[in-house]
Prior knowledge:
This protein has 115 residues and is α+β, with helices and mostly antiparallel strands. It has helices at 2-15, 30-65, 111-114, and strands spanning 75-84, 90-99, 105-109. The chain is elongated.
Amino acid sequence: MRTLWLPFLVATGLSTGCATDRRVTNPRAPGPAVGNVIGTGVGAVAGNVAGAVVGVGEGAAAAADQPFKHDPTQRVVCHWRTETTPDGRTLQVPEYYLVDQHGRLIRRLDEKEVR
């Protein structure tokens, strides 16, 4: 096993370069400065495009997964409660409940959980 790693480590060491702060061209010259700006812009656009593609892919995967998260043994039941306002009007107010397959109450749901 040791003999397999040795050629890999030697090849990796020989193929990597040393990073230096020196540049062959003058960074204050207009050509290299424009090249750096264009390279930065192209890199930013390419990164955002790649991020958008990944975001769309993850969103599609989450949307495709949603129907399979349904638990068929639970149902949402709406019960309409009548309330009378102080001025005499009557209102029908919905109350949502999560029930099991036999109709037994599991818990009351908030309006945000239903919509």
